[in-house]
Write a structure and sequence with these properties.
The complex is a heterodimer of chains A (193) and B (187).
Chain A: E1 2-6, E2 10-17, E3 21-24, E4 30-33, E5 36-43, E6 48-49, E7 52-55, E8 61-67, E9 72-77, E10 84-91, E11 98-101, E12 109-113, E13 120-122, E14 140-141, H1 149-158, E15 167-169, H2 182-185, E16 190-192
Parallel strand pairs in A: 8-10, 9-11, 10-12, 11-13, 14-15, 15-16
Antiparallel strand pairs in A: 1-6, 1-9, 2-5, 2-8, 3-4, 3-7
Chain B: E1 3-5, E2 10-12, H1 19-30, H2 32-38, E3 43-44, E4 62-63, E5 70-74, H3 77-92, H4 98-104, E6 121-125, H5 129-136, H6 157-166, H7 168-179, E7 183-186
Helix pairs in contact in B: 1-2
Classes of the chains: A mainly beta (193), B alpha/beta (187).
Chain lengths: 193, 187
């Protein structure tokens, strides 16, 4: 997982994994942590950086969360899909413009909401959360971002065939009223526009 | 463990125990504004589906610490496990062994007995659903939602033993429930 960070404030995110994790912060600093829940934090000098987190042993990511982070502009997840079986959440990251998951077919729950500048989300193959242990049929939310109708339709194009009774929420985006929900409903998703 | 909130009681939200049907009945009876929203123009359903055929338990207000009497609809444990395993295999579209399912213990297979850990709980057997609905002031019969479409698995003897051991408390509770005519004031 790689991010692009611009600014001089402290950059934070959290991970959970079943393998040890190494974070290269992009300014020469490196941190490592054992498997389990980890709260990551790093303070940058002025500039643009590309921190990268990776597993350093056999295991899987079970959770990655960015919340209320005003520095991150781009998040790229290029892990092998089998290495991620958990929850991926991004919320209230005010500078975030792009989220790109290379292959989301094995992700359990994705919620990317309330990021005011976020104009592009790529989640190819995502099928929803029914296949998880804690399924309570919650929705996958992409609400209140800055997605226009084309970006929402591209997100719908990305979705895989839904597990039964999955719902995707795109309300609160500029393109919600003019997107084409049938792209998603034809693959078994219920859609909240 | 979650409990659906009604004005006069809470209902244990137990997977595979008419969970979806109860949720829909609660929304229609007690939360018409939520029902109206998910039936409105902003919701789009796959072909062949509508608000009435979708699963909306996530929309029912719930709590993990009920502050009023609890009603619980309980199901014969083996029957419930078979229903849960069939659902898992169908919804995930993969073959899951009995042992793997019990080890993972997804929501649909959580034991029922722990939901009765609180005072002022009334448990109802499945064949007393009419009494359950009367107490909850819900429509009876409950709506047909998410009725099982996958064939229920047939268990080998070894797998049946695993289920008996895993749900020993549930089997004991259900036997007690049968002894009291299908309605049990707990504890």
């Amino acid at each position: 997982m790689t991010a692009v960070v611009v600014g001089t404030q402290t950059f934070t995110f959290t991970t959970s994994s079943t393998a040890p994790v190494k974070v290269e912060w992009g300014d020469g600093a490196v941190d490592t942590a054992a498997a389990g829940f980890n709260n990551w934090s790093h303070t940058y000098s002025a500039g643009t950086y590309m921190p990268q987190a990776e597993l350093t042993g056999a295991g899987q990511w079970t959770n990655i969360t960015f919340s209320s982070n005003s520095l991150v502009t781009t998040i790229d997840c290029t892990d092998e899909p089998a290495s991620f079986t958990g929850n991926f959440g991004v919320s209230s990251c005010s500078a975030l413009q792009t989220v790109n998951i290379e292959d989301a077919s094995n992700y359990s729950i994705i919620n990317i909401a309330s990021n005011a500048a976020l104009a592009s989300i790529a989640i190819p193959g995502y099928r929803g959360q029914t296949g998880t242990s804690s399924s309570s049929l919650e929705s996958s939310s992409f609400s209140s971002n800055n997605l226009n109708s084309g970006a929402i339709n591209a997100l719908f194009d990305d979705l895989g065939t839904a597990f039964p009774f999955e719902q995707v929420i795109v309300s609160g985006n500029p393109g919600a009223a003019t997107c084409n929900p049938s792209i998603a409903t034809s693959k078994g998703w219920a859609v909240r526009t | 463990m979650n409990y659906f909130i009604l004005p006069h009681c809470c209902i244990a939200a137990i997977g595979k125990n008419a969970h979806s049907a109860i949720a829909q009945a609660i929304l229609r009876r007690y939360y018409p504004e939520i029902w109206a929203e998910i039936s409105g123009p902003h919701y789009h359903y796959p072909e062949g589906h509508s608000t009435a055929t979708w699963l909306w338990q996530s929309k029912v207000p719930r709590t993990q610490t009920p502050d009023r009497p609890v009603l619980a609809l309980l199901r014969e444990p083996l029957e419930r496990f078979l229903s849960g395993l069939a659902w898992l295999r169908w919804s995930r579209q993969v073959e899951i062994s009995v042992e793997a399912a019990l080890t993972e213990s997804p929501f649909e297979l959580w034991p029922q007995a722990p939901y009765l850990c609180r005072l002022n709980t009334i448990a109802y057997a499945f064949d007393r659903t009419d009494y359950f609905c009367a107490a909850a002031q819900l429509e009876y019969p409950l709506p047909h939602v998410n009725v099982g479409v996958a064939p229920k698995p047939v268990l080998a003897d070894a797998d049946r033993d695993l289920v008996w051991n895993h749900y020993a408390d549930d089997f004991a509770l259900y036997e007690q429930l049968q002894d009291t005519g299908g309605i049990l004031l707990w504890p």
